[in-house]
Specification:
Blueprint (H helix, E strand, L loop, with lengths): L2 H34 L2 H9 L3 H9 L5 H42 L1
Helix pairs in contact: 1-2, 1-3, 1-4, 2-3, 3-4
Length: about 110
């Protein structure tokens, strides 16, 4: 392992943790409000955990501006983490396997 792998692991972990936390906070902020508006508004929020709260926050205007930005920020952070993992993950996996194979030859 080298410094680049550690920075990759730290960056993806922080992006996933931040995105997950924002998604959870946005969901918890919109769920009770959606239920108070009636089951017609609450059903998409309950059945579609990512798109439902975002739809609800966007359709309610400025009252849910904070929740809307939390959900959008969560989706951006999770998309960045996914792009990092899918883009650089195979490179680091290949390097680690090569290092393990080289270490096995040295035994």
């Amino acid at each position: 392992m080298d410094g680049w792998f550690v920075s990759f692991a730290v960056a993806t972990s922080l992006l996933l943790a931040g995105g997950g936390a924002l998604l959870l906070v946005g969901y918890i902020g919109t769920l009770p409000a959606a239920i108070s508006f009636g089951w017609r508004k609450a059903l998409p929020v309950l059945l579609l955990p990512v798109a439902g709260p975002l739809w609800f926050a966007c359709t309610q205007g400025d009252d849910f501006r904070t929740a809307r930005w939390q959900l959008i920020g969560a989706l951006v952070l999770l998309a960045l983490a996914t792009a990092l993992i899918l883009g650089l993950g195979p490179y680091f996996a290949e390097r680690l396997v090569a290092e393990m194979a080289e270490a096995a030859k040295m035994r």
